[in-house]
Write a structure and sequence with these properties.
Elements lengths: L19 E10 L2 E10 L5 H18 L9 H4 L5 H4 L38 E4 L2 E4 L3 E4 L2 E7 L7 E5 L17 H24 L3 H10 L3
Antiparallel strand pairs: 1-2, 3-6, 4-5, 6-7
Amino acid sequence: SPSPRRPSNGSSRTLSAREMYLFDTGGQYLDGTTDITRTVHWGKPTPLQKEAYTRVLMGNIDLSRLVFPSNTPGGTVESFARRALWDIGLNYGHGTGHGIGNFLSVHEWPVGFQSNNVPLEAGMFTSIEPGYYRDGEFGIRIEDVALVVEAQTEPPFLTFEVVSLVPYDRNLIDLSLLSPEQIRYLNSYYQRIRAYVGPELRRQRLEEAHAWLQRSTEP
C-alpha cells in the first residue's frame, strides 16, 4: 500500500498571514462523531473575502435558527443557507449538509438537504455547511454539527440545536451586514461556548487556549 502523505521540503507550502485557510476537522469519539469546518485569515482579508465569509456565516445562521414544520424535507429549507450569497450573485456547488452517524459514517445516509433525503425529524444529526470558492484564490466553508430538536411552538415545529462549539473568525466578519437577530444568535452561541468549553480548558490547565477562547467569544 502507498505510504501516508507526509510534509516535505519539496512539496509543502509555508503558512502565511496573507491567505485564507480552510480547516475541515473531525474525529470519532465514544460519545459522538464530529465534522467541523472553520475558515480563518490571520492577516488583512480583501473586501471580497470578508463579504463572502460574512454571507456564508449569515447562511449558516439563518438555516441553524430556522423554525419549520415537522416532516419537512431538507431540500425545502436548504435555500435559507444560500440566500445571503444569492443576494449578491454568489453560490456554492456542493450540498448544504449531510447526516452524521454515531460510530457509523461521517457522511451518513439518508439524512441531509438534498431532494432525495428523508424528511427531517427530531433526533437526527446533520451538518450545516454553506461555503463559497474562487478557483486558485480562496475557499470558504463554515460547517457545524446540528441536532434536529422540537421548537417552542404549539403544535411543536422543528429547529436545529448546533452542538459544535467552535468560535468563528472575528477577523472575517463584517458586522454591518448582519441583522440584529443574527448578532443575537452569535452572542448566545458564544455564551454557550464559554459555558461549556471554558471550564473544560481550565480543568485541563490549557490557559493559552482558554485566553484565546475568551477573546474569540467576546460579545
